[in-house]
Specification:
Layout lengths: L4 E8 L2 E12 L6 E4 H6 L4 E8 L5 E13 L2 E10 L6 E2 L1 H6 L2 E4 L4 E4 L12
Parallel strand pairs: 2-7, 3-6
Antiparallel strand pairs: 1-2, 1-5, 4-5, 5-6, 8-9
Length: 125
């Protein structure tokens, strides 16, 4: 299996016309997206909180978290974004993929449109 990289435009929900392209490694096993903190701050994205995050090796890190605006082609969405620090990888997590209506095909390592489901149960008539 290989790695999948993708360039998305990221911006502040308050100013969606002001974006910057950022290359991410798609990590469908990660919940959150991690982007360079300096880029997020330059775009006016405000941290909402500071959280503790766990790495796969058991190490824990404290990082700021805010809300970003994401655009990939004609798809747009908003999702939590973690303010990455020096040495952190740019990761595109599951919540951002879902906000864009995309899913990663784990075998082909390609993004595919996902079926958007609102939830609940509606019996067939």
């Amino acid at each position: 299996m290989g790695l999948t990289f993708l360039t998305l435009d990221i911006g502040s929900p308050a100013d969606p016309e002001n974006t910057r392209p950022v290359e991410f490694m798609v990590d469908s096993g990660a919940i959150y997206t991690v982007a360079p903190g300096e880029v997020l701050e330059d775009l006016g994205i405000q941290p909402l909180s500071e959280e503790i995050f766990w790495l796969a090796n058991g190490e824990k890190l404290t990082r700021k978290r805010g809300i970003g605006y994401f655009r990939y082609g004609d798809r747009v969405g908003g999702a939590d974004v973690v303010f990455g620090e020096e040495g952190d990888a740019n990761l595109l997590g599951a919540t951002t993929l879902e906000s864009l209506g995309l899913a990663l095909d784990p075998l082909k390592r390609e993004l595919k449109p996902m079926r958007l489901i609102i939830g609940g149960f509606r019996p067939y008539r």
